[in-house]
Amino acid sequence: MKTILIVSQDPLLTNLAERLLTPRFRTIVLGGMVSAVDAIYNDIPNLVIAEVPSGDDATVESINNLKEDPMFNQLPILAVIGDQPTPEWEGIFVEDYLRKGDLEKDLFSRVSLAVSRSERVVEINPLTRLPGNISINRQIEDRLGRGDLFSFAYADLDYFKPFNDKYGFSRGDEVIKITGRLILNFVKNRQPKGSFIGHIGGDDFVFIMEPGLIEGACGDIIRAFDQIIPTLYDSEDRERGGIQSKDRRGTARFFPFMGISIGVSGTTIRSFSHFGELTGAASEMKHFAKKTKGSSYSMDKRAGRSA
To answer: Torsion angle, CA of 282/283/284/287, rounded to 10 degrees?
Structure first.
């Protein structure tokens, strides 16, 4: 079920929106854009419906800041306005608007159209709602082209396949969603603006941050991941510290709790001509991190131009 986030302090508006949308969509109601941004960081919705009262510059600023963030510029926003003259839309970064007087008649159809349109146009992972490979490559190439100084992290999970094989795809998908939310939250907590999180697919994630902030985010992610992941195992498996499952050759063996391995490279001490060189360097660091028992991260400190 698609998720619609409704942002308004008007109970008549929120009650009407919930009544019209709940049969088809999961709705979440919040009173202001500050709390809405926190909710979006935690779980990206399919659409935001935001009331924009006349003269409410703070709400407009919050919407624009959200849409200027490379993580959320693809998130569609439907503005609800009163019967005042149409505002200057050049200064408000929303995809569509609807007047309060037309909600009863048009809200459901406009929301359905907005969600359908965004799914055709936007390139995101359907499970985590995070940007996918096209967006990831564009982010890297744009930053390299501008000569930005940034760090790039490549993360994936250790022992995910045995977990998925034993417990099934549903519980495996939950692990992927939790991992995506953890990375999103801790990266954005450390760097609210200018950071980027992407989902390559499966259990592979990337994130981009300022060089001085990324190591702290890696530590945050690892600590939270190692605390949460054991709770996803059955009680008897938690007690023994892992599961009996089969490896890629079909041989039965014991696998400890899943871990997360993160490799980090960047442009502060090395130069890269294109995204493949940068991602390759981070992938090398990730494989190095995997040699450490348990969750870990490895920073690329090799100087000189990438080969």
So the answer is: 120
Instruction: Please give the model's pTM, rounded to 2 decimal places.
Output: 0.77
Q: Are 182 and 176 in contact (CB under 8 A)?
A: no
- CATH, residue 217: 3.30.70.270
Q: By CB neighbour count within 10 A (0-12 exposed, 13-18 middle, 19+ buried), where does 74 fall? A: middle
Mean pLDDT over all residues of the chain? 91
Residues 163 and 227 in one domain: yes
Domain count, the chain: 2
Beta strands in the chain (DSSP E): 3-7, 26-30, 47-51, 77-81, 96-99, 151-158, 196-201, 204-209, 242-246, 252-256, 259-266, 296-299
**Backbone CA torsion sign across 268, 271, 274, 278:** negative
Examine residue 234 and state whether it is found in any structural domain, yes or no.
yes
- What whole-number distance in Å separates Cα of residue 32 and Cα of residue 12? 15
* pLDDT beyond 90 at 51: yes
Supply the pLDDT for residue 306.
39
Identify how many contiguous H helices and E strands the chain contains and give both numbers. Answer: 10, 12
The partner residues of 48 in beta bridges, in order of sequence, read 5, 77
Q: Which residues does residue 246 pair with via DSSP β-bridges, in sequence order?
A: 252
pLDDT: which is higher, 80 or 34: 80
In a domain? residue 40: yes
Contact between 204 and 156 under an 8 Å Cβ cutoff? The reply is: yes
Does residue 125 belong to any structural domain of this protein? Answer: no
278 and 222 part of one domain = yes
In this structure, are residues 131 and 44 in contact, taking their beta carbons and an 8 Å threshold? Answer: no
For 74-112, what is each residue's pLDDT tens digit?
A: 889 999 998 776 666 667 889 889 999 999 999 999 999
